[in-house]
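Q: Convert this sequence to structure tokens.
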Amino acid sequence: MATENFMLREFAWDGRYRVMGTEDLLTPALVVYPEILGRNIERTLDLLGGADRWRVHVKTAKLGYAMRTLVERGVRNFKCATTLELLVACQSGAADVLLAYPVMGANARRAREIADQFPDIRISVLSESEEQVEQWRAGPVGIFLDINPGMNRTGIEQDRRDKILRIVRGLEDAGLEFRGLHYYDGQYGGLAEPERTRAAHAGYDRLLELVGDIEGLGVRIPEIITAGTPTFPCSLSYEGFRGGGFIHRVSPGTILYGDATSLAQLPRHYGYAPAVLVLTRVVSRPKEGILTCDAGHKAVSADAGVPTCVVVGHPELLPLSPSEEHLPMAVERGAAGPKVGEALYLLPRHICPTVNNFDCALVVEDGKIESVEEVSARGREAPVMLHAKVSLTNREPAERV
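A:
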């Protein structure tokens, strides 16, 4: 399958993104625009026909502020990848959270602790083997089987039906509740349409064959989860997910804030817009045709490649390879480019790890800073369990309720 490198190459200036008083702000800074955030949420709910079908992945949201905004609009089903994200989601009003990562050992014990602390919240975990199931025996969490659709990151290979059926049969013996199938088809994000949809739908056909095998055991499948942001439209258009004996939920997270990749992947008529930008400042003009701003890869993540971002309203600027704190940019021949000290607004190529780079975010509406919000689910919890006999100094562990 041929792949394409999806990313916007330019993004026009919009006055809604202006932050007043930038001369008094330390840069780089993460900026959240609540009006656009709210519109992205409402657009997703419109596409899904309601809040119940969205199991939003909070690896993007990261802020308790954003999670509470989702809850206020009726989104109560979350998905996360770390115990800190699980904790913050529970603290922010979630009703149902899936820890969508194959946690083991102390990580699993910590997840059980959180489940015990929030008995009114429905918490689930992923499993892909009998050994993983065993560690949850007779515990407070439910189990989703993680199915590998070909991404080869985690999960049981889709064709290993005997293994899948054996684990399903063993859940009842272990005193555990089978809550459904998790199927993340992220490997199709680099395909252009219509090939992406054809590939995703072929996988969904095989997934429904597996559903039939499980139901043949007399076992009900309560929920099927598919689709991050790239295959979100593919899941929406798949007829087989409608009218089944299960609820089908999708789990995109990037659409909450948007980035230069997702806005190129998703149909324009969906109406998503960037709800988060990085405010930076030009700090140098080291040579003709080059300027540098203070948004290196410790601010705007470089995990998705170079360029790491698009400079909003400046098509004459091309971000080059960053270092830790420096982001050099090529200035198109003949263009003057911004001056040293001038503020720029960056649309990241990959917003999720970019948000994780910041301790706090500015919430800006009509150009004014309304609040400064902690990026409360960034990073991880302290690596030592609180009951362990190890002295934790210099840094307080995450608050545990």
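Residues 34-257 form a domain with the TIM Barrel fold (CATH 3.20.20.10).
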